[in-house]
Amino acid sequence: MGGGDILPALEKGVIDAAEWCCPKPDSVFGFQKVLKHYYLQGLHQVVVNADLYINGDIWDKLTPHQKKAMEVAANASLMQAMAYRIHENGKALKDLTDNHGVILHDTPADYFPEYMNAVGNSMERYKSENAFFKKVWDSMKAFADTAVPFWAGAQATNANLGKAYADQLKK
C-alpha cells in the first residue's frame, strides 16, 4: 500500500497497524493520529540503503583519481545521511512520546530467533532452486559469518552506552 493510503486505511479500520519506515517519516504521514503504540526496531531499520548507479561505460572512462573522488563523495554522503536520519528520528520519537501520547515498545526478543529461523529456511529453499541465488547467498553468508558476530557485540556495547546516557537524561 502506498504511504499516502495508510492513514486513511487506519482511520477507516481497514488495517489495524502500520509502519512505513521509521519515526520521522511515520510521523509525517500522521500515523500517531490513530496509532498510540510504536515498536522498535523494525528489521529493515538496521541498515540504510544508499546506492549510486553509474553507467559502466562512463565509469570505465574515469581516471583512477576521479573514481576515488566518487568513492569519497559517496561515503561522505552516506555518513551525512545516516547522521541526519539518526537525529531526525530521535527528534520524532521524542515528539511522538512527549506530545502525542505514543508509547514506545521494544520488539519482543523472541521475535528475532523466529525470524532468523524462517529466513534460514527460505534461503535454503531459494538457493536449491537457483544457482545464481546460491552464489550470491553463499557470498553474503560468508561475509556475515565473519562480520556479524563482531558487529552484534559492538552494537550491544553501543546500545548499552547509549542507554546509560539516555537514563542519565531522565534524572
Q: Please mark out the parts with pLDDT under 50 across 5 or more consecutive residues, or reply none.
A: none
* Tally of domains: 2
Number of strands: 2
Rg calc: 20 Å
| SS-derived structural category | mainly alpha
Mean pLDDT: 91
Biggest pleated sheet? 2 strands, parallel
Strand content: under 5%
Structure in words:
The protein has 2 domains: 1-107, no CATH class; 110-171, no CATH class. It is globular, with a radius of gyration of 20 Å. It has 6 helices and 2 strands, in the order ααβααβαα. The model has no long low-confidence stretch (mean pLDDT 91). The longest helix has 39 residues, at 131-169. It is mainly alpha-helical and 171 residues long. A two-stranded parallel ribbon has the order 1-2. 68% of the residues lie in helices and 5% in strands.
Put the structure in a nutshell.
The chain has 171 residues and is mainly alpha-helical. It is built from six helices and two strands, in the order ααβααβαα. α2 (23-29) packs across α4 and α5 (111-129) runs antiparallel to α6 (131-169).
